[in-house]
């Protein structure tokens, strides 16, 4: 049976809105909906046009983007959960059904965001000595920005920004090395509002010139049927193997995630098909939800589109997009390999079947029906590979989606569908736009106070002290003090990334950690590209890390499973992703584009990582060629950790442990082992 027939876009949309606060839009009356749709379409059209025909002056481009984004948030997001569920009639205090305060917030956001571009010619004379009107406008923008962020993605990021601003104002009372002279409100507003180090800084610039366009491309590509092509191809190629639907989930999530860049959207789109199929053949409900969630988080790290953080890396590191997606290839493969191995071992342990021929679509029929839908993606990748800007590639990708959709007789879309896609694409980009501007506040305070270097000193000093204390107790000189210092620093950084990511989205986590944690790794000699990828990967991992594992909870909603149990299992399934960042820190050749790359170093790192991920997966599953003793599971987990380390001794010990377990399973009857 062709699984596409079971796909319900309305159910998918409902699930996405239920579990993703960034797309939890409130109901609007006809007039308010019309106004919102026109503004959203105008925002998408503005970005589409400037991507193809030239960006505006930096301050103007960012100001227009921010004015649209913040104003629209007050129209499409309610201030309270009650307002998200109820449609109010129009009245004097609720023009067109929206509270008059929301309209005032929207106007204030537009005016204060456009003020900086308006005074741009005089800006150089005001930075450092702002006029009273500058301070007022800056204060207004900060207030409406924090409220817009709270509405569109919850309180954690806005609360962090408030705490950081308080640190900027009252730093003289901070403890120890964190102390600084403190700034008055005028100085703080000047830095955050009038300079390019704050709200109008790099994060907003990247969203306005890169991220928005690829969100729009993903919406249009899905609308013309590219997502259906990916899901059906994955079903045809992987569905017949043991535990087939789970393997379909992994492959389809990798393909679909490459254009969506959203963990939750990926989970509900592919999961609405794969999760019921996994349950039907015998996977436990929580495991089925976890597989889809773990696989779907890979979308943000899968080339060519990846998540918003990929575009931020371009600006932070000053490298080409080609460099970023090349560096992401092997780590993305390792993530999906890790999930696939655990899925396979679980299927073998449970004795699960694959899908029958009747349940699978035919490759030929799928390609015949949907091959035109892949043309825009091929065009986008080709333009990127030629070295053109990502936004120009997105422009031609979007254009190709429109052309293919209008002329493809098997999945034709009309002008109204294009309009709706432009509206939806802009809606999906609102929350990340607000987050980027709010992170600009955090980065602005960091640059104003220099706190990142103080934190880096504290962390590295602490890690060095712990390493010196632990090193004498490690046998065989497996790790020296310097390696232990780096390992402890990485562990501390990873924990902070995961904790931060539990409350705020990946993009915001990445931006904050790059400002605070990346300098820590830099002090230990880690290359900037490697450091950025490390914090990026652990920020993504937060989507399946309880207690706020939104992708896992979305999967649990489809499976009718225990959300917390699904989150714990999804985190376990993502252990390959957790292991890989440590590998490419110790063996940067795994990223392909680092200085000093050699194929010999790459081959050693690649093979060691494959063995390490397999060992760790077997340890969690309790199964390799057969059931494992409890002691063997612990040995395999230890072997996986040893294979991460760069020293030859630790690698050889890890390989010896794995070989020992395999030998035991080969020589002893399976019945003799106890799980």
From TrEMBL:
Alphabetized Pfam families for the sequence: DctM
Entry annotated with the keyword ATP-binding: no
A molecular function GO annotation: transmembrane transporter activity
Cellular component terms (Gene Ontology): plasma membrane
Superkingdom classification of source: Bacteria
Entry's transmembrane regions: 31-51, 63-80, 100-119, 155-179, 199-221, 321-345, 391-408, 428-448, 455-474, 480-503, 510-538, 578-594, 601-624, 636-662
Membrane topology category: Multi-pass membrane protein
Major localization class: membrane
Domain spans labelled TRAP C4-dicarboxylate transport system permease DctM subunit: 141-594
Record's keyword terms, sorted: Cell inner membrane, Cell membrane, Membrane, Transmembrane, Transmembrane helix, Transport
Location(s), subcellular: Cell inner membrane
KW Membrane (keyword) present: yes
Function: Part of the tripartite ATP-independent periplasmic (TRAP) transport system.
Descriptive protein name: TRAP transporter permease
Native source species: Jiella endophytica
């Amino acid at each position: 049976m062709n699984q596409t027939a079971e796909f319900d876009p309305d159910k998918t949309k409902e699930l996405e809105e239920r579990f993703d606060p960034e797309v939890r839009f409130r109901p609007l009356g006809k007039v308010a909906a019309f106004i919102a749709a026109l503004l959203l379409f105008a925002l998408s059209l503005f970005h589409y046009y400037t991507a193809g025909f030239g960006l505006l002056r930096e301050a103007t481009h960012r100001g227009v983007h921010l004015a649209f984004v913040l104003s629209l948030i007050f129209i499409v997001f309610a201030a309270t959960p009650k307002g998200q569920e109820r449609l109010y009639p129009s009245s004097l205090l609720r023009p067109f059904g929206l509270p008059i305060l929301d309209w005032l917030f929207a106007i204030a956001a537009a005016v204060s965001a456009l003020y900086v571009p308006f005074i741009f010619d005089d800006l150089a004379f005001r930075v450092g000595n702002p006029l009273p009107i500058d301070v007022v406008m800056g204060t207004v923008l900060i207030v409406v920005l924090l409220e817009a962020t709270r509405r569109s993605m919850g309180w954690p990021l806005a609360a962090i920004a408030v705490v950081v601003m308080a640190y900027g104002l009252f730093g003289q009372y901070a403890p120890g090395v964190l102390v600084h002279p403190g700034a008055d409100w005028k100085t703080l507003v000047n830095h955050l509002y009038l300079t390019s180090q704050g709200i109008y800084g790099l994060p907003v610039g990247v969203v306005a010139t890169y991220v928005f366009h690829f969100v729009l491309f993903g919406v249009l590509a899905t609308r013309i049927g590219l997502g259906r092509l990916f899901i059906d191809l994955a079903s045809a190629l992987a569905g017949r193997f043991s535990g087939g639907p789970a393997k379909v989930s992994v492959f389809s999530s990798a393909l679909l995630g490459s254009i969506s860049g959203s963990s939750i959207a990926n989970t509900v789109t592919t999961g609405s098909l794969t999760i019921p199929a996994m349950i039907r053949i015998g996977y436990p409900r929580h495991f089925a939800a976890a597989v889809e969630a773990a696989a779907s988080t890979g979308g943000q790290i899968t080339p060519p589109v990846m998540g918003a953080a990929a575009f931020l890396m371009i600006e932070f590191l000053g490298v080409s997009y080609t460099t970023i997606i090349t560096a992401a290839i092997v780590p993305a493969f390792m993530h999906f390999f890790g999930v696939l191995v655990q899925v396979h071992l679980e299927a073998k342990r449970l004795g699960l079947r694959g899908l029958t021929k009747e349940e699978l679509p035919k490759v030929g029929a799928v390609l015949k029906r949907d091959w035109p839908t892949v043309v825009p993606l091929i065009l986008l990748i080709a333009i990127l590979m030629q070295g053109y800007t990502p936004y120009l590639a997105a422009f031609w990708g979007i254009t190709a989606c429109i052309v293919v959709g209008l002329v493809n007789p098997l999945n034709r879309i009309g002008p109204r569908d294009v309009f709706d896609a432009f509206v939806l694409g802009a809606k999906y980009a609102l929350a990340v736009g607000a987050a980027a501007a709010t992170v600009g506040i955090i980065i602005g305070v960091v640059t104003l106070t220099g706190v990142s270097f103080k934190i880096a000193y504290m962390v590295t000093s602490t890690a060095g002290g712990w390493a010196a204390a632990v090193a004498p107790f490690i046998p065989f000189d497996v790790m020296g003090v310097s390696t232990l210092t780096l390992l402890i620093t990485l562990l501390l950084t990873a924990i902070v990334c995961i904790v931060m990511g539990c409350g705020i989205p990946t993009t915001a986590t990445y931006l904050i950690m790059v400002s605070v944690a990346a300098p820590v790794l830099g002090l230990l000699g880690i290359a900037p590209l490697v450091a950025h990828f490390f914090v990026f990967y652990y920020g993504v991992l937060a989507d399946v890390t309880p207690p706020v594992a939104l992708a896992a909870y979305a999967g649990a909603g489809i499976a009718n499973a225990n959300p917390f149990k699904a989150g714990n299992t999804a985190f376990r399934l993502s252990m390959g992703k957790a292991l890989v960042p440590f590998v490419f820190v110790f063996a940067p050749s795994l990223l392909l584009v680092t200085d000093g790359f050699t194929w010999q170093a790459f081959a050693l790192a690649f093979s060691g990582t494959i063995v390490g991920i397999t060992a760790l997966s077997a340890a969690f599953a309790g199964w390799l060629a057969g059931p494992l003793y409890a002691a063997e599971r612990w040995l395999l987990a230890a072997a996986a950790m040893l294979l991460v380390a760069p020293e030859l001794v630790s690698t050889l010990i890890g390989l010896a442990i794995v070989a020992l377990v395999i030998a035991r399973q080969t020589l002893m009857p399976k019945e003799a082992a106890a799980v």
